[in-house]
Design goal:
The structure holds 2 protein chains of 2 kinds. By secondary structure, chain A is mainly alpha-helical. Chain A is 64% helix and 0% strand. In chain A, α5 packs antiparallel against α6, α6 packs across α9 and α8 packs across α12. Chain B contains 8 helices and no strands. Classes of the chains: A mainly alpha, B mainly alpha.
């Protein structure tokens, strides 16, 4: 193992993610949800009036921080480039189903491991599902299933600025509170860390993740491909160890299967939900967190996936798709199966054959 | 646009219009502040009114039930409650009251089932800060019932009633623990 600059940035990103992932809960976010991109997307979709669950409406500053932090980092490192133009509608649909998979599991891949490091053993089914999903995605890639390549030539100049501009607008919304912006006064969305802390944490994580390319599904993908040689492995280890230590030191580590916060015991659906997320993430090049970061660095394809994620965030709440502690509703099961239909059908149609 | 790019007349017109549009945006956004504050205050007042109206309606609707409860006539309270629940099956309050009555009668599995139905219909009953909160009662029930429910289920795993009771208590425990919904 060579300790180079990339390795240090990746490890630092993992460390920051583990630290803020738990500490944001300590500072006010819901239990085990210090960072959960899918929950934040659902909350923010509600805040913007896209669904009317009164307990899940809050424009999460962390999300804005991820995109604007990545934007700042890309400008600072001179890596900002407008690019895109590969299978836009498929990416939009993939973003939608990423949130469906997360909603059925109750959490994105980051929250999956935050739940695990807090002792929630029900998350093990999700871990297995995510690894299996990434494995299936990799198998597909090796057999020629690809959404096409990103190209700066295919994206109109400046189109990459639209996502950072949209999130800048959301930031303004937080400070000027327009009349259409809704904020829950009860339920999990009423629980949040102080605004400036959330925003700063988001900016720091977006900045670090853009430079390091760190993401959870990317780490699993690289570990499956390269084993111990994968630099993202060390980021993943730093994330897990930090989150575990912070959970232990703040008294949040409570091992067990039953009665864990924001979890259910329908293991097969946890496995399938995260399996869908893993598979889609490999196809579109990153988990929900990575899509936000990439949209901040000029990737308009990732921005479309983010738009799909917002629609998904609204629909999972409006159509009774999201799982709760009571289990996975029928709508959630149907939606996950539909997601697999998209992935499987898409893989057959997109595959480049010799 | 690169630093060395030469701007022609059309570019300059566009830049001028862009500056006007940006200024207009700032002016109009700033102008909307008083309206925004009014809107938020109106919304808060509407929420407050709705909450008070709900509390008043519930008090009136369930008055015979709570009266019987206060008199210690739990069977009668349950009978009156069933009447209200059959008229308003989508209202959480009735199920929460059912949970409370059964809890006082010592029928802990029935109490858990009542609380689960109520909390699923309306999460306010398990929130810390809600005026409707029954968090403390539910917390005590879970603490008291869970160990015995676990051991009863372990000794007879094929019994569906024991399985359901344990699932109900685990659901309540999970909701008490917080997290995303």
């Amino acid at each position: 193992m060579r300790l180079d600059r990339h390795m240090i940035t990746v490890t630092l990103s993992g460390l920051l993610l583990g630290f803020f992932g738990v500490m944001l809960s300590v500072w006010g976010n819901p239990e085990n949800s210090g960072i959960c991109v899918s929950c934040f997307i659902e909350n923010s979709a509600g805040a913007l009036g896209l669904h009317n669950n009164p307990r899940l409406q809050y424009l999460r500053p962390e999300l804005i921080g991820f995109v604007l932090g990545a934007f700042a980092s890309a400008l600072f490192r001179r890596e900002f480039r407008s690019r895109g133009g590969s299978a836009p509608l498929l990416r939009f649909a993939s973003g939608f189903f990423l949130i469906v998979g997360c909603a059925v599991f109750i959490g994105c891949p980051i929250k999956l491991f935050l739940r695990f490091t807090a002792g929630d053993l029900t998350s093990l089914a999700g871990v297995a599902g995510l690894v299996a999903g990434v494995g299936c995605g990799l198998k597909g890639l090796s057999k020629g299933v690809e959404l096409g390549r990103l190209s700066p030539a295919a994206a109109p100049r400046g189109s990459g600025l639209l996502a950072p501009a949209a999130f800048l607008m959301f930031l303004l919304f937080i400070f000027i509170s327009p009349s259409f912006l809704v904020a829950s006064e009860k339920g999990s969305s009423a629980q949040h860390a102080p605004l400036l802390i959330s925003l700063s944490a988001g900016l720091a994580l977006g900045f670090a993740a853009q430079g390091s390319r760190f993401c959870i599904t990317g780490s699993i993908r690289d570990i499956l491909l390269m084993g111990r040689r994968a630099p993202l492995l060390w980021g993943g280890i730093a994330f897990l160890v930090t989150a575990l230590l912070v959970n232990l030191s703040t008294g949040r580590f409570k091992p067990g299967f039953a009665g864990q916060p924001g979890s259910h015991q329908e293991y097969i659906w946890s496995f399938l939900g995260m399996g869908l997320v893993g598979w889609l993430s490999v196809l579109i090049g990153g988990c929900p967190f990575r899509q936000l970061v990439k949209s901040g660095e000029g990737d308009s394809d990732a921005a479309l996936a983010v738009a799909g994620m917002f629609l998904g965030g609204a629909v999972v709440q409006g159509w009774d798709i999201a799982a709760t502690s009571a289990g996975v509703p029928l709508g959630g099961k149907i939606a996950v199966i539909s997601g697999f239909l998209l992935v499987l059908g898409g893989s057959i149609l997109l595959r480049e054959r010799e | 646009m690169t630093p060395n790019m030469k701007l022609d007349r059309f570019d300059k017109i566009l830049l001028f219009l862009l500056a006007i549009a940006a200024s207009a945006l700032v002016v109009y956004s700033a102008g909307s502040f008083p309206a925004k504050t009014t809107a938020i205050e109106t919304r808060s007042m509407e929420r407050e009114l709705a909450a008070q109206a709900r509390a008043g309606l519930l008090e009136k609707l369930y008055a015979p039930v709570t009266g019987a409860m206060q008199a210690g006539q739990y069977q009668e309270a349950l009978l009156k409650l069933e009447e209200v629940i059959s008229r308003y099956p989508g209202d959480a309050h009735g199920f929460i009251l059912k949970g409370e009555i059964l809890c006082r009668m010592g029928v802990l599995d029935g109490a858990a089932a009542g609380f689960v139905r109520g909390v699923k219909l309306n999460g306010d009953y398990i929130d810390k800060n809600s005026s409707f909160s029954k968090r403390d009662t539910i917390s005590v029930l879970v603490e008291k019932s869970l160990p015995s429910a676990q051991s009863a289920y372990k000794s007879s795993r094929s019994n569906p009633a024991l399985k359901e009771n344990l699932a109900n208590l685990n659901y309540l425990k999970s909701r008490l623990a917080g997290g995303c919904e």
